Amino acid sequence: MARKAQPGDGHELTRYRWWQLFSRSLFHLRLRGVGGGSSVWSIDVRHGGDSDGVVWAMLYVDGRNQARSKMPAVFVVPGGTIQVTASGYGMKRCRFVGDDGEIRRLTPDPASAEGRRAQLERSRPGLSRAIGALSAVILIVGLVLGVPQIVEDITRIPPVADAIGTFVSPIRLSFGVNIALLLATLAASTERALRLRYSWILDGGAFDGDF
Questions:
Q1: Environment class of 159 (CB within 10 Å of its CB; exposed 0-12, middle 13-18, buried 19+)
Q2: Collapsing DSSP states into helix, strand and coil, what is residue 92?
Q3: How does pLDDT run across 134-173, given as a tens digit for each residue?
Q4: CB neighbours (10 Å) of residue 205?
Q5: In this structure, are residues 42 and 27 in contact, taking their beta carbons and an 8 Å threshold?
Q6: Which of 25, 84, 133, 192 could join 73 in a cystine, given CB atoms 3.0 to 4.6 angstroms apart?
Q7: Is there a contact between 205 and 149 (Cβ–Cβ < 8 Å)?
């Protein structure tokens, strides 16, 4: 359910810094207003959260803060809305949905991790597709190898075992291999988030209730 946006305080949008590559997402969209002029609408998300730990989607117009919202966020803008959703790995969705049904993804800031990934896709499309395919393969392998082990561990919990019995996984990997698999799947889901690709099956939504 989308959260209600709160008024902004007018502060200025800060420049994107290189050390924010995996902690901040910044997107832009130019829209024409009722009077015929155009403005740049920006969405800024700090994934580490504010001082209170809350992750906010901040809306800026021509570099000035107009509104903020917890996520999932929906901001009313000229001609439609901007929808913003994050996952545990980065951005899941940042798009403009027009009143006429038009759907347009916001453009990532060139300095951001999403912007750099988009530049790779434009300049080296073959390499980009290969990296994307590798990420999907890693996540599929992670599901095939990891889920049976997780199910076995869950069914070993006494109340669960008493209720349904114990499942014995046909796959049992060493601790080191499981850690390597976990790190690989985290990297793969992060890479997909940089392209705003998300699947509740591949990217963990099945475990956090995202259906």
A1: exposed
A2: strand
A3: 999 999 999 888 888 888 888 888 887 778 878 777 878 8
A4: 16
A5: yes
A6: 84
A7: no
- C-alpha span between 16 and 68 (Å, rounded): 18
pTM attached to this predicted model: 0.85
Task: Report the C-alpha gap between 14 and 18 in whole angstroms.
Answer: 13
> What average pLDDT does the segment 84-99 reach?
93
Name the residue with tokens 């976990």: 182
The arrangement of strands across the sheet holding 107-108 comes to 6-7, 64-70, 56-61, 38-46, 24-32, 107-108
Q: How far apart are CA 29 and CA 104, in angstroms?
A: 9
Burial of 11 (0-12, 13-18, 19+ CB in 10 A): exposed
Distances (CA, A) of 38 to 33, 67, 75, 85, 133: 6, 18, 17, 25, 38
pLDDT in tens, 4-31: 889 999 999 999 999 999 899 999 999 9
- Compute the average pLDDT of residues 19-46: 90
Average pLDDT for 25-46:
90
The CB-based long-range contact list for 48-53 (8 Å cut-off, 24+ gap) reads 48/23
pLDDT, tens digit (0-9, with 9 covering 90-100), for 53-76: 789 999 999 999 999 999 899 999
d(CA 51, CA 64): 21
